[in-house]
Amino acid sequence: MRCQLTGREPGFGNRVSHSQRKTRRRWNPNVQRKRYFVPSLNRFVTLTLSAKGIKTVDKIGVEAAVARLRAQGENI
Asked: How is the chain split among helix, strand and coil, in percent rounded to 5?
């Protein structure tokens, strides 16, 4: 449940009822598995990305995104 590109993870907090009783909850990021073809590797790679991560790949390109992930030490 973590975006490989942006590092977005679940947020934690309290669910507060009408009577102000507080119980723990989590906000999950919109994480999806997306498959991209990388011409330099001549193969498909599957990335786990948040919605913002998908937009980032669309903006900078899949080659730059893969290079950024490799610089972070991510195994692709």
From this structure: 25, 35, 35
